[in-house]
Fold these 2 entries.
Entry 1:
Amino acid sequence: MKLTRKLGAVGALLAVSAGVFVACGSSDSGSGAQGAAASGGAAGADGGGGMVNPDSGSGGFFGGDSGLSGDVTSEGFDPDAACAATTLSATLAKANILFLIDRTGSMNCNPPPTQTSAECANNPVKKVGTEPSKWEITRDALIAAIQGLEGTNPLPSIGIMYFNSDGFCGFPQQPNVNVAALSGNPNNDPQLNALVLSLNGVTPKGETPIVGSTMSAYQYLNSNAASFDGNRFVVLLTDGAETCDPASKPYLIEKAGQASSLVNIRTFVLGAPGSEDGRAFLSQLAYAGGTPSSSTCDHSGAPANVGDCHMDMTLPGLDFATALQANLQAISGQALSCEFDVPTPGPGEPPVDPTKVNVKYTHGGTTEYILQDAQDPCDDASNAGWQYFDNNTKIVLCGAACDKVKNDPQASISIELGCATQSVPPK
């Protein structure tokens, strides 16, 4: 059977100010295709190969060059000739994002270099009243980022939660705005309006209960899992360290790991100026939460001001507003990547063999195979293939393949089961 679903028009690409807000693929470090590569694949000599037309007797390529090049041949490529294949529709995984935002008193300060973190700690008010505070920069960046999400497909669901909740050490029990889908119409979107109204109504004050607040975020996303189709993310932004329950930091790190590995709730961590002495903890939290900056980042936990697995905006020479915008862009790129679930077998059906999975891309009446490519990082622009993630349960279109599919309003993706996986040959 051949069942397909149109991806639909992509629309605007998440523009935030002058930056492009969408990236494709995934930046999960150390991840790659886990299924064995089968022989018979092919790649173009220009490095853009990764899609092969199964309907063409010549085995021609889909890409910048429509003809064959190098030593590519079509011999033995047709998987349908020697196996029985089942083709199922594939739908992009939706993103459900809960922003967990620090609204403590220190967010009233100007960011460095106007006001140092030490000056802010001694007197948490603006040093220069005519320049924006850390909160004002954060508020404006979040509003712009969420507005930019209105042009994505599928539309994400967004919510927001602040800590503290009472001007002291209280942590929220529920989001200030529940996670709900955007409408796609930035001029008339009730959810966007609720988020903007909420952000504009914040007055920073009080302490920093990161542990309790993050646990509340996990509890909310997990207890309402049936309402969220797709992937779930917590985006934690703080300008400090845990000040209310520091003894429970190891507990939160453990729970972040469980949230990521057991229930697919990943945690992004952004450290704003003021969080310098919390780097070790924030780094451990990002690593455990499934979003480390690299597989070799420092999550040792000591000393307190050392760690680089999170998105650290406290480094010398960084402009906070610019760094925050760039990091929100990077988060969107990962959360809104070209990700598909590997089909789940029905009752009595055999499990999916990861070495017998292929990805088909249909556009304008033409069908191409996107080849598996585990040789280059998935977020590399030159990678025009796909990779497995999450123990072969998810397929992610990489770099150029993701760009091509997301920018094709006629595109549909389907997953073929039962035929040897077609892969880019070793370089």
Entry 2:
Amino acid sequence: MKLLKTKKTEFFTWLALLISCLLLYFIATDYAIFPRSYKLPLLYLILVLICITGIISLISRKGWGYFSIALNLLLALCMITGLVLLPNIEKRIRSIFKDVKTDEVVYNVYTTNSKYKEDFNSFSNSSFIVQTKNDLENQQNAIDQVKEALENSSLRIINKEDIVSAVEALYNNEGDLLILNEVYVDMIEEIEKFSNFSNDTRIVYTITKEVEVIEEEKPFDRDITNAMFTVYVAGEDTRSGRLSIYGRTDVDIVVNVNPVTKQIMIVGIPRDTYIPNPAKDYGMDKLTHLGNDGIQNTMKGVSEYYKIDIDYYGVVNFGTFKSIVNALGGLDIDNPYTFYSGQYSFPKGELHLNGDSALVYCRERYNLSNGDYGRSEHQTIVLKAIIQKLMSTESISHFDELLSALQGQFLTNIAVDDIYKLVAMQIEDNSKWDIISYHMGGKGDMMGTASMGWNRHLYVVHPLESQVRFIQDETEKMKNNEIISQQILPNEDDTTFIPN
């Protein structure tokens, strides 16, 4: 009788194992990330497991029945754990690669410390300084909100041609208040006489406007695993710490990926590159300024100037960058020359970087003889190391840390299902990728910009046409599935840097 009860228990635990195995199989293989060629082998493996445990249950004698029950329960528990973990992992991955449908544009109303009043309504008879040449719609919306808040539709508005003139007017007491998009504060403080802008002023009112993020429609759908695609990698260094697609880009890297030829080309572009700004009537501007009107504006400007189709973007801030490096267990790079930055020393040769040292390595420019060109070079070196680490089997052991590091700290318009397809392809063929990297040069100059005014000369970089054509040609080759190789950029010796 006791043996019969044991046999029944064995059967039911085996049945639980069978059901949990089949459920796990169908759920796991339904994910786009699961390689198709692995489906049949996994099914065979499950069937073998079920057969072996079934046979053990059938032939087990007194004493061994409990072993069979324990084995079935243990294996069923493992399957159930997988059933619980898979949806959770799926949810965490999808929360990283989520579409950015809307974002916020923030305008602040500033006054000088000497004119600061606790009660904003006390400013109802004040004069407002605005720069009206650019960003007209959002700025008018900010002015309307201020008028509504003060219940005064006849406020005196002082119009200025550019941002610098508007800030200068506040310092010269031409008006009591200044309405300014907060993304411009960092730029303002790079000007010596306004370097203490944040300390010299107080924010008395904030206007936040939610704006719709409009993506350019693709001419056709394509399988991301069968054709070259291009990603614009942008790094922000904002004072607010809030990740947004609006803001200056201190990292500007174009990444061509060809899954057919298994090649990646990383092209670092200096942030001060002087190109037309689509959002400013195509007036010449620093590349980093294009991001103030959104990452789509940056992509459009770079695409049109370099004649490269850019499909996707990925935006991170420096805090995220540090977390990613730490989550990967650090990076190994080949540093081309010795330099120092604060407490950090970076000797020439093989180096291991953790999150903190990698961040310093990518941000330093003042202690480099070639300034921002060197910083751009360091950024491409580190990005190459990150990609290599992500594609290695070692990254699997850091999977959970990487997911945690990217939660809410990464903006992209790449669909998660496309990412799954790429990962599944890599798991399936386990191919070795060839990574090629370039950092573009140029000639330093002092010029006016569409964003900060033509009378205010800022440091800019004129791209070298020979290098632009070279990148265009290499991109076209990749697009046609031709194999390219690492080369020396043309006219590298023509690059000139002006300390600024």
